[in-house]
Amino acid sequence: MSRQLPKTASIAEVQSDGRLVAPSAANNTRPICQVLRDVAPKFGRALELASGTGQHCVAFANACPNLTWVPTDIDEDRIASIGIYVSEAQLPNLTLPVRLDATQKGWSNTTGKLDLIVLVNLLHLISEAEAQTVVREAAAALAPNGVFLLYGPFMRGGELTSEGDMRFHESLVSTDSEIGYKDDFDVIDWVVDAGLDVAHVLEMPANNLSLVFRKSE
Ligand SMILES: C[S@@+](CC[C@H](N)C(=O)[O-])C[C@H]1O[C@@H](n2cnc3c(N)ncnc32)[C@H](O)[C@@H]1O
What is the pLDDT of residue 1? Predict the structure, then answer.
């Protein structure tokens, strides 16, 4: 499901060719690619949930060239933008985008088994129940040894730990009381309950976290 969000939640400028450019995606691409180089399986099938503009999937496919990448999103404008990036990049390991609602129960039955699932900056924009569905579906879609990378802003042990995070969380909650930052420990519990093991918890720039999980063999 697509929700009403404050303007600051998903900023992207439209270019003359229709592609979208998000400053946040430009800023966090390099650190996320570094995490991927360290934790991603060397071969196999990778799915990106909530891909956004398409900036990330091109960088991810370049960073992990032996994985075949499928970008996805719920929003038609985003899918169109991703398609432009994908077509221009002409990478053999990056497919055209697929529409996928990450909060829809059952999507894991449609993807086939995946070796890597990446989700950047979605959990704070959806409800807790929706976030739990995302996590359960991602865990179900992974093949043995598959990796789930969750990146974004989180509460830390129930606390908002910077003024920017407090402002952003408040803007989310005042627009839609069901959304807002999720707690890092809660999210880890949900993923572990869904059957994955915690592999790494990494501090990232701008007070974000990368939570990396692995499915056992
Ligand atoms: C803040 S943007 C992040 C985009 C990208 N991951 C990034 O970090 O640049 C949130 C994205 O989530 C997508 N989205 C929102 N709800 C979704 C859902 N239920 N399933 C899949 N994508 C969703 C939006 O269309 C948007 O592209």
Answer: 64
Q: Is the dihedral of CA 9, 98, 77, 56 positive or negative?
A: positive
Kindly give the distance from the C-alpha atom of residue 72 to the centroid of ligand 1, in angstroms, as a whole number. Answer: 9
Average pLDDT over residues 114-138: 98
Helix intervals (H) in the chain:
23-39, 55-63, 76-89, 128-141, 163-175, 184-193
pLDDT of residue 217: 87
Quickly tell me which residue has 């829809």 as its tokens. 104
Pocket test for ligand 1, best of 49, 74, 85, 104 (most atoms within 8 A of CB): 74
97 ligand 1 Cβ < 6 A: no
Whole-model pTM: value is 0.97
Positive or negative torsion for Cα 162, 135, 54, 67: positive
How large is the average pLDDT for residues 44-57? 98
Q: Which domains does the chain have, with CATH numbers?
A: 7-215 (3.40.50.150)
| Cβ neighbourhood burial of 49 (10 Å; 0-12, 13-18, 19+) | buried
56 Cβ below 6 A of ligand 1:
yes
For residue 120 and ligand 1, the question of a CB distance below 6 A is answered with yes
The residue whose CA has the least distance to atom 9 of ligand 1 is 25
Contact 214, 35 (CB under 8 A): no
Q: What is the pLDDT of residues 65-94, one digit of tens each?
A: 999 999 999 999 999 999 999 999 999 999
Residue 102 Cβ contacting ligand 1 at under 6 Å? yes
